[in-house]
Write a structure and sequence with these properties.
heterodimer, A: mainly beta, four-stranded antiparallel beta sheet, B: 113 residues, mainly beta
């Protein structure tokens, strides 16, 4: 248990399905992140939220839609995905204060397979 | 973002020390050096971080070169559970909220029994 909980752990979905990934943290952190990790590749930052506001979108296709209703919860809504979107999706959180390089706490990830 | 360079892979024998190097020749004066590791089928986990002085914690030690252009993560006695990908990451500590973590390929550590 890392303090960041992701559900589900595994997800298989068809290309026409709509599904959502959930991330939850009760560490008192004010920033949350979505990363994608494809096979044999480094982690890629997808979205950043600070105090519930999206501050970064790294050219992610619109079939991925994040939502951050409060500082403790982060969702990634998925629709009409492609097989190449199959990957491990990781959520992380951190305290984000000016001039303080706090580290991240990661969840265990959701292993997504698009068929 | 300042870049780091790590060997792709390393091997160690169980119960022996492991020294994982990281080069960061373009580091700025306010960049902190962070180390994370990722066990199979898990998200990355924090190992250690430092700015200028060497650091120790229950997991590892971090040795930082005097010019800060390189650092070494030291696992004092490798166990099979230490087999993972180790990431060395720089993160700014001044000027706004700092940079986001950018992960490179890391070093894949294999531990042999």
């Amino acid at each position: 248990e890392t303090g960041v909980t992701q559900t589900p752990r595994h997800l298989v979905m068809g290309m026409t399905n709509k599904k959502s990934l959930k991330c939850e943290q009760h560490l008192g952190h004010n920033a949350m992140y979505w990363y994608k990790q494809s096979a044999k590749k480094p982690l890629e930052l997808m979205f950043v939220y600070n105090f519930k506001e999206q501050t970064e979108n790294n050219s992610v296709p619109s079939r991925f839609s994040p939502e951050c209703p409060n500082s403790s919860h982060l969702f990634l809504h998925l629709h009409t995905l492609q097989p190449e979107d199959s990957a491990l999706y990781l959520c992380a959180s951190s305290s984000r204060r000016p001039n303080r390089p706090y580290g991240y706490t990661f969840g265990s990830g959701t292993r997504l397979t698009v068929v | 973002d300042a870049k780091t360079t790590q060997p792709n892979s390393m091997e160690s024998n169980e119960e022996e020390p492991v020294h994982l190097p990281c080069n960061h020749s373009t580091i700025s004066g306010t960049d902190y050096i962070h180390w994370y590791r990722q066990l199979p089928s898990q998200g990355p986990e924090y190992v250690i971080h430092g700015l200028t002085s060497n650091v120790n914690n229950r997991m590892a030690s971090l040795a930082i070169a005097e010019d800060r252009k390189s650092s070494t993560l030291i696992l004092h006695r490798a166990t099979l559970r230490d087999a993972a990908v180790y990431y060395c990451i720089l993160r700014g500590g001044s000027g706004g909220y700092g940079q986001n973590f950018v992960f490179g390929p890391g070093t894949r550590l294999s531990v042999l029994p």
